[in-house]
Design a protein that fits this description.
It is a single chain. The protein is an alpha/beta fold and 374 residues long. It has one domain (3-363): Aldolase class I (TIM Barrel, Alpha-Beta Barrel), CATH 3.20.20.70. It has 16 helices and 9 strands. It has helices at 3-7, 12-21, 24-32, 38-45, 53-68, 106-119, 137-147, 163-171, 186-192, 201-205, 207-214, 230-247, 275-288, 302-308, 345-354, 367-372; strands at residues 71-81, 123-128, 153-157, 176-182, 218-223, 252-256, 293-296, 315-317, 358-360. It has an 8-stranded parallel barrel. Strand 3 (153-157), helix 8 and strand 4 form a beta-alpha-beta unit. Helix 5 (53-68) packs across helix 13 (275-288).
Length: 374
């Protein structure tokens, strides 16, 4: 069984209607429930919940501190290739966009990570456009082997792979997988992915399943906010995360909140997501997923990131670059999208500490596993 068998039991329009039917009393019941069901999540995502944001924020904050303490794990994205064979209409790496592209050598990737290592980072996320020809599995393995002595955790956000390929990555030091479904709306998904292998909705949807079967220690999912109705996509990403937590209990599941940003191609979101919507979505998912990580990137402006910090966030990036070679080499290559929080890692760390949280650069070491093996 995969999440595909789960999601086909639900219809987008029926979930949308159920959300819109929720009342203030439904929201109160969801807030007071000792354990929450999917119907409670729909209430927390509903328009009726807009009048309860303060109560939701307080509950989300308390639950996060109870489960995670006052800590924020720091990580940095490292783009290693901007080559792509897809035609995603919203993405700067769209194969039809006339942009400068690059694929870094292993030595160049090491240089990027050494730069980040000097800033304190020990958790990195390696990203590529979707081009197996330019970033084959063996290339990723060589990079992981080179970086493993420097880092506590290596995650990847790459083209969807088969389970056996994921196992090879894990065997060579990669411990985390990030993949965004972008939107769970089947028709809308086809509209924004007109060509390329990414057009295969089910293959992408089942990617976290294959990652869980392979044994990744971290599984991170999300939707691209702005592609479809955020309330319904929020319900489906919540359902997906809860499924992953139950089925792959050895993996820690987290949810990211990427919101569409300006990029080459000039795509304009048809479903703009306001800041208040971001607050409601994050709080709703925290109350639905008490043990999941919630990840906030530099897509969002500094002021908003500061305000969202106490509402359930457990991981933040800082000082991010979205082009290959953007840190050490500073190559003249275009990024996937524009970032919004331009502060340095040190400035972000000071902000986190000023709010009474502890920035955590390293929360894991592979040696922990070796220590318990007979």
């Amino acid at each position: 069984m995969s999440f595909w068998q789960k999601i086909i039991q639900y219809r987008w329009d029926r979930i949308h209607a159920a959300i819109c039917r929720k009342t203030a009393q439904d929201v109160r019941q969801a807030l007071q429930a000792p354990t929450r069901n999917f119907d409670d999540l729909l209430a927390l995502l509903s328009p009726a919940a807009a009048g309860f944001l303060e109560e939701m924020a307080l509950a989300a904050h308390g639950l996060t501190v109870q489960r995670f303490g006052r800590t924020i794990q720091m990580f940095a994205p490292v783009y290693i290739s901007s080559e792509c064979i897809n035609s995603c209409v919203y993405c700067g790496f769209n194969r039809h966009n006339q942009i400068s592209r690059a694929t870094l050598s292993v030595a160049e990737v090491e240089k990027e990570v050494m730069f980040l290592h000097g800033q304190g980072f020990r958790h990195v996320l390696l990203l590529t456009g979707e081009s197996p020809h330019h970033a084959p599995v063996d290339y990723l393995i060589r990079i992981a082997r080179k970086l493993q002595p420097l880092l506590a955790s290596i995650s990847v956000e790459i083209y969807p792979m088969a389970t056996d390929d994921y196992r090879r990555l894990i065997e060579n030091g990669v411990d985390g997988l990030t993949v965004y479904q972008e939107t769970y709306h089947l028709k809308r998904y086809a509209e924004v992915h007109p060509a390329g292998p990414k057009r295969n909705y089910r293959w992408r949807l089942e990617t976290p399943d294959r990652g869980g079967q392979a044994g990744f220690r971290r599984l991170n999912i999300g939707v691209l906010l702005g592609l479809s109705d955020w309330r319904v996509d929020g319900a489906f990403v919540g359902l997906h995360a809860a499924y992953l937590e139950r089925r792959y209990w050895q993996s820690h599941v987290s949810v990211s909140f990427p919101r569409l940003r300006p990029a080459a191609g000039g795509f304009q979101p048809q479903f703009p997501v306001k800041d208040a919507h971001m607050v409601q979505l994050m709080c709703a998912l925290r109350l639905w997923l008490p043990d999941a990580g919630l990840v906030l990137s530099t897509r969002e402006p500094a002021s908003l990131r500061e305000n969202l910090l106490p509402l359930g966030i457990t991981q933040m990036s800082a000082g991010s670059k979205t082009a290959p070679g953007g840190y050490a080499a500073k190559e003249n290559v275009e990024g996937q999208f524009e970032i919004s929080d331009l502060r340095s890692p040190q400035e972000v760390v000071r902000m986190i500490a000023a709010h009474g949280y502890e920035p955590v650069w390293k929360d894991w070491d592979a040696g922990f596993l070796n220590a318990v093996q007979p």
